[in-house]
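Q: Got a minute? One more chain.
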Amino acid sequence: MFPEASLSLTPMPPLYVTSSLKLPSPPLNHCPSKSFSFFFLIFQFNLYFFCFGFRVLSSDAQVSELVSKGRIYHETYGCQMNINDMEIVLSIMKNAGYSETVEVPENAEIIFVNTCAIRDNAEQKVWQRLNYFWFLKRCWKSNVDSGRSQSLHPPKVVVLGCMAERLKDKILDADKMVDVVCGPDAYRDLPRLLEEVDYGQKGINTLLSLEETYADISPVRISKNAVTAFVSVMRGCNNMCSFCIVPFTRGRERSRPVESIVKEVGELWKEGVKEVTLLGQNVNSYNDASGSEKEVEPGSNWALSEGFKSMCKVKNMGLRFADLLDRLSTEFPDMRFRYTSPHPKDFPDELLYLMRGRYNICKCIHLPAQTGSTTVLERMRRGYSREAYLELVQKVRRIIPDVGITSDFICGFCGETEEEHADTLSLVKAVGYDMAYMFAYSMREKTHAHRNYADDVPEEVKQRRLSELIEAFRESTGQHYDSQVGTIQLVLVEGPNRRAPETELIGKSDRGHRVSFVNLPLLDRNDQVENKRNPVVGDYVEVHITKSTRASLSGEALAITKLSTFYNNVEEAAVACAT
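A: Always. Here it is, folded:
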């Protein structure tokens, strides 16, 4: 009928639909005749024509999908693990046809909020945002008319992550504020859950898994052209610390196979990534028991840090974290590796000696103490004493002399006395951390502490103790920055220095210190022709440290180099000095 044209159904201007419409189906016990099938097909077409209209396009026009699946806006709260989870979600959605993301929620048909449940403050921020997204849904038509929104229909609001698991019923009952609630182990189910919303149903899946690691999914990187990336290697937690909600929102520990991690890191290397941070709720508890055919035989027992104990015994032992780091650091000699967040119990000597021997494993260890009091550690069910923790710190510094140590601390845990608080202050001064995360205690439902203890430290006391802890940290951390003055540090350039974006670059040293320097033409030690060029994002630069602010470093850039070249030169210089 139309020899020079093709027929394509394309949406008309957006319509505000107050309820979803589901097409009728014939009875289950009825076998439709051909005439009924034809009538039903015509009915479907007429309904679509009535709702959307159609347009005749020339055969040269680009024919797109009949109905757009919707643009995605996403926000992430909490830890690096949540950032990596959001990248997994975007990959799942892209494979399901949701390929477009937008920068503002007003332009989105789907809004993802990836949540954190560790502290009450994080949850309150999420509730505030959900109120605004509810406004975008409820007042969609007037928002479009006024120009505030450009979405094609009222947005579907999806809550992901730990808060989804912890407060699923409360979230869904919140006056139609949220359409889908999806827990950390159910992200593969998101496309189906979104389809259920189209038929007037709420979408919910917060089931926890003993196997899900998303090992076969290649994440869609949120930071385009970044030179650093996160790679999740394990999920969940078995430790059951009395203050922590993670085992109840993330489930039990399970680890990805080594081969899948090596493959993902290899893809990142090809994309230009120069530094990878390995992620896990207890990353150094990594245990790949996926098969028996291993190139590296695991040890005969599951050794813990000396003086530490575990709440959960390992049933099937496979390749440990040291085996994974050994494989990665060997196969990618010019890529840096960091990891977070570990538990102090899983630092056997094998791991420490590997870190000392491999130049591309950063000499920075996160050792979460939580408190400096043995009695509080017992109430927290941490599995170690103050004395055991300090002995581990001494061992770490003996094996890796120039190591940087960071930590986590909680102020005002249940029953904490002034004497126990003083123990924490003295621990901070005794260890001398490069960096620390410090928080006032926030009681979480479902935890051991919620069931067995009273949150009896007044809020004003918690805040006062937190201020004292921060002050003690500041007094002790400066010396670790000052000690770097006069040294030459290898800095991975991450971008312009925000304080002087036109003239300076900034990056991180091996210990994780922020280092800035003036952007000037430098010799490239890997270039046979001795031409100078300005360093760019992704370059490793030798920097002579000249100044410490006790929170960051600055210095003079000497040359552009490679990771392996720099450390080979350092090794050769050390040998020359020794002879």
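A: The mean pLDDT is 85.
Q: Perfect, thanks.
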